[in-house]
Design goal:
22% strand; Beta-Lactamase; 7 strands; two-stranded antiparallel sheet; alpha+beta; 3 domains; elongated; five-stranded antiparallel beta sheet
Amino acid sequence: MVSQELQIERELSRIAGPDRAERLASLLTLSSKAMLVWHLNEGIEFWNSGAERLYGFELGEAVGRTSHALLQTKFPIEFAEWITQLRNESHWSGELRHICKDGREVIVESRHQLLRDGTVIEVNRDVTERKQIEADLRGAEEQLMFLASIVQSSDDAIVSKNLDGIITSWNEGAERIFGYTAEEAVGQPITIVILQD
């Protein structure tokens, strides 16, 4: 599957002459990624259909407004420090949190490029769902580790085996009761402690 950036790059390489600016504007306008152009001392100048879909604000609602006020941007650092980094490096990449027109919060991977005239080109990709899945997985992992620590420290013998009767886990209680260490028991048939019949 060809990435959208590669498709745009291929299209741009085919474009020549006076049509180039018009076609470039069409490509950017139709992009599924949220793209906007704003000026450090002014409001939004360009707002594509990807930004409309992600944030819910139509072109007329966005143009002329300050992007960070419109989207109630939450920065990973203080705004003044963020602007300083953008001015010093001429680019910035990282995560931002925005509030959409309907009030929901989205997390975006954001890239900013500062041009010499103070114009900022911003491209945002919605990663809200991915971040939620990652948070859920971390929570599940922490819960499993907590349960594993309970099982491991239990005074009762807690042993698990697979369908073939091979021991797959062996806690400290099992070590005390049966006399085998976990290293000795795991991988062995359960018949070392339970008669086969």
